[in-house]
Each structure stands twice: as C-alpha cells, then as structure tokens.
Design goal:
CATH topology of the largest domain: Rossmann fold
Number of strands: 13
Bound molecules: ribulose-5-phosphate
Helix content: 25-40%
Largest sheet: 6 strands, mixed
CATH architecture of the largest domain: 3-Layer(aba) Sandwich
Number of helices: 7
Shape: globular
Distance between the termini: 19 Å
Number of domains: 2
Strand content: 15-25%
Structural class: alpha/beta
Order of helices and strands: HEHEHHEEEHEEHEEHEEEE
C-alpha cells in the first residue's frame, strides 16, 4: 500500500538537489505534488520549472513558480519525478498518471534524474504494475495485437486522453526480466508514442522516503 508520509518525506528530501539559479524539471503525481509544495519556498532562488504535465503546470503556476518551455531552456541540470515501480537498478515503470511521454522527454533532457517514491514502489522485477503505453488512437488495436504476440494482456484505459491527445494501453501479465530490451523492442512498433519503461534512461538517484536507495 502506498504511504503518504513517505511520499512527503521523499518530495521534501529532493529539495537538496536544487541548486541556486536552476531550471528544475518537474514530474507528475502525488509524490511530486509534495516536491512542488517544497519548491515554492525556494521560488526566489530558481529561474523556474519545466513541467511534464498540465496538472503539474497548474500546481506550479498556482504557487507562483514560473513555467518555462523546454525548447527555450535547453538541457536541464535536474529532473525530479515519482514512479509506479522501481527495481534495484533504478529502472522504472511510470505512467500511472498518463504523463509518461512528457516525463520521458524531460528526463532525457536532464543531467540528473532524482526519482522520489515510497517503499511500496520497490520491486525486484518490474511488471506487477501494468505497463502504461501511450498510443496514437488509430493504432490502438494494431498495438494490442503486437502486445498479445509478446505475451502481454493489453487493457485500454478507456476514457483517458493524454495531454498530447493520445490514448493509454496498460499491459498486464509481463514479468520484465530485460527492461532495456523490451523498451527498445516496443519503441519500434508504429503508433506507440512512448513506453512507460524508463530503463534506457533510468533514474540516477532514488529517494525512498528520505533514504537513498
Ligand atoms: C505519472 C507518473 C507518476 O510519477 C507515477 O504514477 C507515481 O505517482 P504517485 O507519486 O502519485 O504515486 O508516472 O505519469
């Protein structure tokens, strides 16, 4: 079961990675919400944030933190985000909040990815949490068939439209022994926008509550 107190501790502990004058990449979710609340106390010491979702953008703006365009900022020094699962190699499943594509973009643009989780997210093998995949709507059935060929059970997250106007398929039943290989393979299927596996670009630092993994 997820633990709100550990999420708060993790969100607050990540503040120590924020340097004066930084532009901070900001993820999405309930753990990141604690980070955004803590970041507001430093808002006069940073240039602003690059956001990974409309949800986080609204939260940042509400607290007076400037939200900047990644095309204008260039590379970022720091990205802070949560996860749905994290293995001992800091490889992640993300996308429970349907924000995986922008999260992946901001993570890729950042020198250091600090992942903030509660202990319920720690696993030895990724895949108990259904793997979110963002898809172009017209490719949903095609991609579903490709997933079945690979032994997965695809479930359309009916009614959810991502910030990019796409749909989400959650894949059940995969025990992901080689996350880099699966991410690479799925990335080749036409119509997949992005896969919620963060294995090719894992986290650099993981905070479980206020403790380092
Ligand atoms: C959103 C995500 C989130 O980081 C993930 O779902 C964890 O959320 P929370 O901090 O609420 O448990 O990947 O797309």
């Amino acid at each position: 079961m997820s633990n709100a107190n550990e999420k708060r501790l993790a969100g607050e502990a990540a503040i120590r990675y924020v340097e004066d004058g930084a532009i901070v990449g900001v993820g999405t979710g309930s753990t990141v919400a604690f980070f955004i609340d803590a970041l507001a106390d430093l808002k006069d010491r940073i240039q602003g944030a690059v956001s990974s979702s409309e949800q986080s953008t609204a939260h940042l703006k509400r607290l007076g933190i400037p939200v900047l365009d990644l095309n204008a900022t260039g590379p970022l020094s720091l990205y802070v985000d949560g996860a749905d699962e994290c293995d001992p190699h800091k490889r992640l499943i993300k996308g429970g909040g349907a924000a995986l594509t922008r999260e992946k973009i901001v993570a890729q643009a950042s020198q250091k990815f600090v992942c903030i989780i509660d202990s319920s997210k720690q696993v030895n093998l990724l895949g108990k949490f259904p793997l979110p995949i963002e898809v172009i709507p017209m490719a949903r059935s095609l991609i579903g068939r490709e997933i079945v060929k690979r032994g997965g059970n695809p479930v359309w997250r009916d009614g959810v439209v991502t910030d990019n106007g796409n749909w989400i398929i959650d894949v059940h039943g995969w025990q992901i022994a080689d996350p880099v290989a699966l991410e690479t393979d799925l990335n080749q299927i036409p119509g997949i926008v992005s896969v919620g596996l963060f294995a090719r670009r894992p986290a650099d630092v993981v905070l479980v509550g206020d403790k380092l993994l």
